[in-house]
Amino acid sequence: MSAWIEMISDEDADPDLQQVLQLARTPHGTVDNVMRVHSLRPNTMRGHVVLYRAALHDPANTLPMWLQECVSSYVSILNNCPYSLANHWANARHLIGNESRADAIEAALHARRPETVFEGRELALMRYAEKLTLRPGEMVEPDVTVLRQAGLSDGEILEANQIIGYFNYANRLLNGLGVSTEGDVVGYYAQETSKM
């Protein structure tokens, strides 16, 4: 079972759901369980797809994609969300493009010691992600000032904030409904990698 609630298959979807499933299709042509779990309420699936693509896959984002995926992975580690971690760490590893560097980053994030592999703006982002995920009520303006002092623009700070906020939402959706990767194609680059 891929979730603790019913998920409607493509074959059993009514026309309204079919339309939203089309919107949610991945580059692999599938609908991942993170989206299909909304199938009983297509409007939340539509909103989720739009939010996800705006936060993480918008071409206007200026943070490097590998760093966006590392932030996503760190939030998922902090929330103990195996679904998001499986997908977004696979993406981060692919984008980092260096196995030993990726191994070091993965170990550091799992140990909650990003300072062993990051410095400057990258480290500041990981610390911001950790505090916003684990202690959101303690956020203060100096938390943003530190990011600015590390060299991040206000636009990049907003990008990071939205990625962190999105993954806190998605992690809770996934963990709260017992969604697994069963039947999914794990990682955005899985098809591309398999052709190499």
UniProtKB/TrEMBL annotation:
Keyword terms: Oxidoreductase, Peroxidase
GO molecular function, one term: peroxidase activity
Protein name per Swiss-Prot or TrEMBL: Uncharacterized peroxidase-related enzyme
